[in-house]
Design a protein that fits this description.
Structural class: mainly alpha
Strand content: under 5%
Low-confidence stretches: none
Order of helices and strands: HHHHHHHHHHHHHHHHHHHHH
Number of helices: 21
Shape: globular
Helix content: over 70%
Oligomer: single chain
């Protein structure tokens, strides 16, 4: 029946139904066919899945990310980065990566990061002599930092589903996020030197300092979010609210780039994104109930135990599944569908929860830029007004780079576990 469920789910997706509705309908259909479930429990399960205080962090971080993009904060951040490092060989590539990193430390979303930074940097880099395919590939790849560098919506969902500390999961993603950022920068600089890309205009020191003063409010936002969490002043949910209040204050009072018209657009976009995520959460909870009652994780665990599967073999199997699913499903949906199956097995094999969480999220990052239907590819294609196949041509070297980082993170679990271990 689990194969019937998955087949129904894929068919409904191919009919272009939203992910949440496809998952809920396929699960309910299988439950009705088996006749062992009371349908009165379906609405109870759907609503109880969303009744969680930690989940309130999701609309908070989504809203803060939309404010960042539309309230002028991201524009000033990009300009500051450009004045300081844009004149170096490959400088605009570095500007793009660093801006994605800062945006990631606010929004927690990869598509939002790629869209916000891409809308500004694609025309700027093309005008400075960069190949457009390479530029779109770079932004799609750097955009994936949105779900690895804390705060991260997938880490929030992982923590709630696996009953792990969200704050410590955020810390687990910090070193891998920096590692990936540095790797992207090194690759971009070397590639720019080989291709002879981009030396933009060099700004005088006075202009650099002026731009830094103007954008300092944006640089303080990730410090506010992460500092309040790591010092114990606020929970991730509370810090998301602080980020929203701070973002509104800066955009409306200081930069004066947000009025009533922009406020409406901000709230509409936030509601659209949040409702999609929460619909997936509710549907995945119903799916999780079914596979738990059918003892799917236990059966897979017995199969692994009986066949003496090693940890590295388990990571390969999980990575292949996640990479395939990542090409056509949202990261939130993948975590909520697969974690109830994979997590008990990872625990059985002695894999640290934070190590497994980071490996899972990096796999999802790669999936988001893997053809044919990686989500970030479509986002960048839309922003860059270019055909999807041209984005794919530019993304291939970055897929290889992320796969290399994934292997490093699998081999060295301390990169994911050390930082959370020092947190009281």
């Amino acid at each position: 029946m689990i194969f019937v469920l998955l087949a129904l789910f894929i068919i409904l997706l191919l009919l272009r139904l939203p992910i949440g509705i496809s998952l809920a309908l396929s699960t309910i259909t299988v439950m009705l066919f088996q006749g062992d479930y009371s349908m009165s429990m379906v609405p109870q399960r759907l609503f109880s899945a969303m009744y969680s205080f930690p989940l309130l962090a999701i609309p908070g971080f989504v809203l803060s990310g939309v404010i960042l993009a539309q309230g002028g904060i991201s524009k000033y951040l990009i300009h500051t980065m450009r004045t300081w490092v844009g004149h170096l060989p490959g400088g605009l590539s570095v500007v793009t990566i660093l801006t994605c990193m800062i945006f990631a430390a606010i929004s927690g979303s990869s598509p939002a990061t790629a869209a916000a930074v891409g809308s500004v940097m694609i025309p700027a880099m093309v005008n400075n002599g960069y190949d457009k395919k390479y530029v779109m590939g770079l932004i799609a790849a750097a955009g994936t930092l949105g779900i690895l560098i804390p705060p991260s919506i997938p880490f929030i969902l992982f923590g709630i589903t696996a009953e792990e500390s969200i704050g410590k999961l955020f810390m687990a993603g910090f070193i891998p996020g920096i590692l990936l950022t540095v790797s992207l920068i090194v690759f971009a600089i070397i590639y720019a030197r080989i291709k002879g890309y981009g030396v933009a205009e060099k700004y005088p020191m006075g202009e650099r300092i002026k731009s830094l003063k103007k954008s300092i409010w944006g640089f303080l936002l990730p410090i506010l979010i992460l500092g309040s969490i790591y010092t114990g002043i606020a929970t991730p949910t509370e810090s998301s609210v602080l980020a929203v209040v701070y973002g509104f204050f800066v955009s409306i009072v200081i930069y004066k780039e947000m009025g009533l018209k922009e406020l409406r657009n901000v709230f509409v976009e936030t509601i659209n994104i949040t409702s999609m995520i929460f619909l997936i959460i509710a549907a995945a909870s119903l799916f999780g109930l079914y596979i738990t009652n059918e003892q799917i994780p236990q059966k897979i665990g017995e199969l692994i135990a009986n066949n003496d599967v090693q940890t590295w073999q388990f990571f390969i199997i999980v990575s292949l599944i996640l990479l395939i699913m990542g090409t056509f499903l949202d990261a939130a949906a993948i975590i909520l569908i697969t974690l109830p199956i994979f997590f008990p097995i990872a625990t059985l094999l002695g894999i640290h929860p934070y190590h497994f969480a980071v490996v899972m999220v990096v796999n999802l990052e790669i999936g988001m830029i893997t053809p044919p239907v990686g989500l970030n590819l479509f986002v960048v294609s839309g922003v860059g007004k270019e055909r999807i196949e041209n984005v794919v041509r530019g993304i291939i070297p970055f897929i290889l780079l992320l796969l290399f980082i994934l292997i490093i993170l699998i081999i060295f679990p301390s990169l994911s576990t050390w930082f959370p271990s020092i947190m009281n």
